[in-house]
Specification:
Distance between the termini: 79 Å
Largest sheet: 9 strands, mixed
Number of helices: 1
Order of helices and strands: EEEEEEEEEEEEEEEEEEEEEH
Structural class: mainly beta
Oligomer: single chain
Helix content: under 10%
Radius of gyration: 26 Å
Shape: elongated
């Protein structure tokens, strides 16, 4: 068992589940300020003591407090955070927000918010009830799912990528914007890997200018049909 201790303003060692980065407070060239051992450190540069007979490579930290804040000097004070090196969660998974409902069981995955799940390597799920199951994918918003590699999904209640490729391969889409609800999932926009984009609504060009024009899919199709008819009448096609 490992106990994390930090030195307070009175120079006393108190238990606290927060550990500094290995690069240290002075950057990559600075000292980490972290000491691992069963006896209290004597080096004054040590600010964090892990009371353990283990080493930096085999210590598992499961840190959990209440919320997130930023102190006046710009240093983020991380609370309600779990940094896990454990086979049941996935090596180096990070959980923030509701640590009881979020799951980060992919290697180097990150789950934050409420009831989110990042289940593949390098995946990131945030928001509420989002799922990032594709490798290096990112799901955010509410009830969204990114189910293929490097895919970005946001909005609410999207229709999932229908590709039959495995989750660590590319699917049909690199990006999906969901605009559905609990009764009827739908997509406002999709962008595939060839750069082809589909939007559910109309398209406006020249935003906030006198030349601004909005056109719908029906109007575009009518223009296309008229153009084809004119070419046919001219004997071009």
């Amino acid at each position: 068992m490992s106990i994390l201790k930090i030195k307070n303003e009175q120079g006393q060692w108190v238990e606290l589940p927060v550990i500094k980065g290995t690069d240290g407070k002075d950057g990559a060239d600075g000292k980490s300020g972290v000491y691992i051992g069963t006896e209290a450190p004597t080096d004054e540069d040590m600010d964090v003591w892990i009371d353990s007979d283990g080493t930096a490579d085999d210590i598992v930290t499961d840190v959990q407090v209440n919320n997130v804040s930023v102190v006046n000097n710009g240093v983020a004070k991380l609370h309600e955070l779990r940094y896990i090196k454990d086979s049941s969660y996935g090596n180096y998974g990070i959980i923030e927000g509701n640590v009881n409902t979020n799951i980060a069981n992919g290697m180097y995955s990150h789950a934050e918010g409420h009831s989110t799940k990042a289940s593949s390597a390098g995946s990131h799920a945030e928001g509420i009830l989002t799922v990032s199951s594709g490798g290096a994918s990112h799901a955010e918003g509410m009830y969204t799912t990114a189910n293929h590699r490097s895919q970005h999904v946001f909005g609410e209640y999207n229709i999932e990528d229908p590709s039959t490729s495995v989750k660590d391969k590319r699917g049909n889409y690199v990006e999906i914007v969901g605009n559905g609800d609990s009764d009827s999932p739908s997509n406002a926009r999709t962008l595939d890997w060839s750069g082809n984009e589909k939007i559910a609504g109309s398209l406006t060009l020249g935003m906030d200018t006198q030349d601004e024009v909005t056109i719908t899919a029906t109007e575009l199709k009518a223009l296309k049909d008229d153009y084809s008819s004119a070419l046919t009448a001219l004997g071009v096609i």
